[in-house]
Write a structure and sequence with these properties.
There is one protein chain. The protein is of the alpha/beta class. The protein has one domain: 3-Layer(aba) Sandwich (UDP-N-acetylmuramoyl-L-alanine:D-glutamate ligase), CATH 3.40.1190. The protein is built from ten helices and 14 strands. The strands form three sheets. It has an eight-stranded mixed sheet, with helices on both faces. A four-stranded mixed sheet has the order 3-2-7-8. The radius of gyration is 20 Å and the shape is globular. The two termini are 32 Å apart. This is Carbohydrate kinase PfkB domain-containing protein. It comes from Glossina palpalis gambiensis.
Length: 335
């Protein structure tokens, strides 16, 4: 039997060391923690966790450390059934974060450490990624000068599929999604090459957009302009003219969406009853939409509604394993 095609998530893996306290420690003082734990994190890494819990076959592609201190990350990937066989390995310590979470106020402080960890480069992608294994490739928007040729490589693969496909072949092109989360305009060259765009609030505010509705319509107009103006090599002129689905979650107001067919809809916010942990809620949203579109064959609106409900549910529990309980509840309600 042929192996089912997987979802590939490209980006970072980070170790989170989470400290739960009842109050922030005073200056030069001590505070006893009520709870603490380690957690594999990073946007693309979390996306894989969500996808795997939901039932998608998935793979993480990013640089991983061989250092024994970070074996926990490797073990967690393997225990969850997330493929990491193609990841380049280095001896440098993996980036890690210390997170101090104050339970009574539901606030947290993140101290991030990155001791010069190498970035993922195009030559890694070209060497290790076999495109025929995937149905969807998601990029955590970063390092656009390296990521742009990765997406162009997929686009060329898709174009070759079309030209070589026979009438009876049922070969599907790879769907490309990109997350615009970091506050930098440098990511826009990635956006004009995507099929699905996830636009974060921080990115939108950095550009100058004040609402999710303004964001999706202004971004669509901007992408059209960039597609015409961006300097491109002759061999990529046919790869960059896309009308992506643009999805913009905005915590206070909900989610605004502009589909590739220029259909607009808004999913209102439904705040959780009691917020326990917001870490990973955005990654839950993104991973759930990818699963719903690639595996469940939902429409864009159905996928966003599903992901919105699941992200809200996740915030009421610590970690991502609560997704299993959500699925169980849904099955019981259907029965």
């Amino acid at each position: 039997m042929t192996q089912p095609k997987r979802v590939l998530c490209v980006g970072m893996c980070v170790l989170n060391v989470v400290h739960i306290c009842q109050e922030y420690p005073p200056k030069d003082g001590r505070t006893r923690l009520s709870e603490g734990y380690w957690q594999r994190s990073g946007n693309a890494s979390n996306n894989c966790t969500v996808l795997r819990i939901l039932g998608s076959e998935c793979e993480f592609f990013g640089i991983l450390s061989r250092a024994p201190a970070f074996q926990f990350l490797i073990d967690d990937f393997k225990e969850r059934g997330i493929v990491i066989d193609s990841c380049p390995r280095v001896d440098i310590y993996q980036p890690y974060s210390s997170i101090l979470s104050c339970r009574p106020t539901n606030t947290f402080t993140i101290i991030h450490t990155d001791m010069g960890f190498p970035i993922l480069r195009f030559h890694h992608f070209k060497q290790y990624v076999k495109l025929e294994n995937y149905k969807w490739i998601h990029f955590e928007g970063r390092n656009p000068w390296e990521t742009k040729p990765m997406i162009n490589m997929i686009r060329r693969f898709n174009e070759n599929l079309k030209s070589n496909r026979g009438k009876d072949d049922d070969v599907k092109a790879i769907t490309i999604s990109v997350e615009l989360a970091k506050p930098t305009q440098d990511l826009l060259p990635l956006a004009i090459r995507a099929d699905v765009l996830f636009v974060g609030r921080e990115f939108a505010l950095h550009i100058g957009w004040k609402t999710p509705k303004q964001t999706i319509f202004c971004l669509r107009e901007l992408l059209t302009t960039l597609q015409l103006r961006e300097e491109k090599d002759d061999n990529e002129l046919d790869l960059c003219f896309r009308s992506p689905h643009i999805i913009c979650p905005w915590a206070d107001t909900g989610v605004d969406v502009l589909t590739a067919n220029y259909e607009y809809f808004h999913i209102p916010s439904s705040p959780p009853i009691h917020i326990i942990d917001t870490l990973g809620s955005g990654d839950t949203f993104v991973g759930s939409i990818i699963h719903a579109l690639s595996h469940m064959k939902y429409s864009v609106q159905e996928a966003v509604e599903f992901a919105n409900r699941l992200a809200i549910y996740k915030m009421q529990y610590r970690g991502l394993d609560c997704i299993k309980d959500y699925l169980t509840q849904q099955e019981e309600e259907e029965d």
